[in-house]
Structure formats: C-alpha cells, structure tokens
UniProtKB/TrEMBL annotation:
Name recorded for this polypeptide: DUF3097 domain-containing protein
Domain of life where this protein originates: Bacteria
Signal peptide range in chain numbering: none
InterPro entries (alphabetical): DUF3097_C, DUF3097_N
Region (Disordered): 1-20
The species this protein was found in: Streptomyces variabilis
Domain DUF3097 as annotated: residue spans: 20-79, 108-265
A Pfam family recorded for this sequence: DUF3097_C
Length: 268
C-alpha cells in the first residue's frame, strides 16, 4: 500500500528556512515587530541587546526568524567562543573578511589636505581598497583647475573632489563650478576645516569654538580649548584618534564622501 505523508501543508505555505547569523558586536539589525534598528552591543543567554543611533538600548529575545538583516529575515544566534570578527567596516558597510585590495582604478578622489585624506582613510579605507579607489590631496583648492586639466576625466576615469567650506558665492565655489563636468564632480561640506566635521562629543568637548575672523582657525581652536598652539599636528592626532566609525562624523560630511565614492565607482 502506498504511504502518504501526514503533512498536508502545501509547499508554498511551509515556512522557508532562513540563515543563522552570529550576533557579533556591531552587527546592525532590525526587530520587525517594533521597528527598532540598532547595533548589537551584547548577546547573553537567550537575549540580545541593541543600541540605536541615538544611544537607546533595547533587549530582545533570540527567537527564530526574529530579525531583519539588510531587509532579509534571519535568526540571530549566540556567537561561538573565540575572537570575534568585525561584521561592519568603520563606514558602516558589510565587512568582507579576507578580501584583497582591488587593483587601483583610473578614477580618483581628491581632498584638500593631508588631514582630510587621513580622516577619509580612517572611516572609508576598507571600502576604498575593495573598490580600488585612491585618495590624493590638493594642498589647496587653487590648484584644482590645473589638476583637473592634467587628469583629463572621462567615462573610465572619473574624478571626485571634496572641498572644505564650499559655500555658494565664495572663491572655492566659483572654482568648483568652473571644473565640474559630466565626469568630474566637486562636492563640499560647510565646515571651515575638516576638524570641525568630527562631532564635538567624540573629541570630548561641548562644541567647536567660534574663532574671530582674521585669526587662523586651527590656532584659534587650540587657544580656546587650551591645547598647545604650536602643535596643531598633535591636536589633529588627538582628534583623529577619537574617530572610531562614521558615527563620530557629522552627516554633512558622510553624505558627500559617499556621493563621491558612488560617482567614481559607477559603471561607465
């Protein structure tokens, strides 16, 4: 006699299996029942604690199919013992363990100075190496027209430029307008110097000081904060060391850098 399965549930109504993902610190997930989205900060027996971008903590049970990871349903599980691998880069992108740097593409991103380049490397370095994007610096926006002319941007060699204090009507704004084209994109942030794009709380100060016009901005900041004026390089190292991820930077800078990366890596 033919044997029939007791399970008469149609295949399309059966729950689909979902991947199990270790709840490693830093993993960003969403709990669909509440809509709470945050990074894992600890995982204990049967529960996981998430922290959202405002610093609020919520504890959730580790239930099957209980979370969304990049829009996909997953089951979070306790991480295995041993050193945890980061699941996110400093920019918030999904980490790719063991990924080799791509051969440098023809496209480039230019920033105004060494400090700008070091900050971009600190947060987006992993992403840029995977994409094969090299970051160079101008040492002043006045050199931009000659650099763009020499670079000769094209469909397979796009040029992205990040400019400090890019405000309509300024000299920097006019220079940027003059070199922008289909294959050359110049964007900017509103800050006088890249230092100011780091959140004050991350540096351990209440706010960036207001520096009188006519006073060198970095010098004025060091004076107001009681830092050694003659050692602006030392001050910058203190600021850079306070940056752990994109969360330590102002949104106005984050958006512009992401825009440049997308621009220079877009298919020709």
């Amino acid at each position: 006699m033919r044997q029939y399965s007791a399970d008469l549930t149609p295949p399309w109504k059966k729950p689909q299996s979902v991947p199990e993902v270790p709840a490693e610190p830093g993993l960003v997930v969403e709990e669909p029942g509440t809509g709470f989205c945050g990074a894992v900060i600890r995982c204990e027996a049967g529960t996981v604690t998430l922290e959202d971008r405002f610093g609020k903590h919520r504890v959730f049970p580790l239930e099957p199919r209980g979370f969304l990871l990049e829009g996909r349903v997953v089951t979070l599980v306790r991480p295995s013992s041993g050193p945890a691998r980061p699941t996110r880069t400093a920019s918030g992108s999904v980490a790719v363990p063991g990924a080799r740097a791509r051969v440098a593409r023809a496209g480039r991103i230019y920033v105004e100075g060494r400090h700008d380049a070091e900050l971009v490397e600190r947060v987006w370095g992993d992403d840029l190496r995977i994409e094969g994007v090299v970051v160079e610096y101008l040492e002043g926006v006045d050199d931009l027209p000659s650099i763009v002319e020499s670079f000769a941007p094209g469909p397979d060699a796009r040029l992205g430029v990040l400019v400090d204090h890019l405000v309509p009507g300024t000299k920097e704004w006019r220079i940027a307008q003059g070199v922008t084209s289909e294959h050359a994109l110049v964007v900017g942030h509103p800050y006088i110097d890249i230092w100011e794009a780091v959140k004050p709380a991350s540096v351990g100060i209440e706010a960036w000081p207001r520096v009188p016009r006519g006073v060198d901005w970095k010098t004025g900041v060091c004076e107001a904060l009681g830092w050694r004026v003659a050692h602006t390089g030392e001050a910058w190292r203190r600021i850079l060391d306070s940056v752990r991820s994109y969360k330590d930077l102002e949104p106005q800078l984050l958006g512009r850098v992401e825009e440049l990366i997308d621009f220079v890596t877009a298919p020709s």
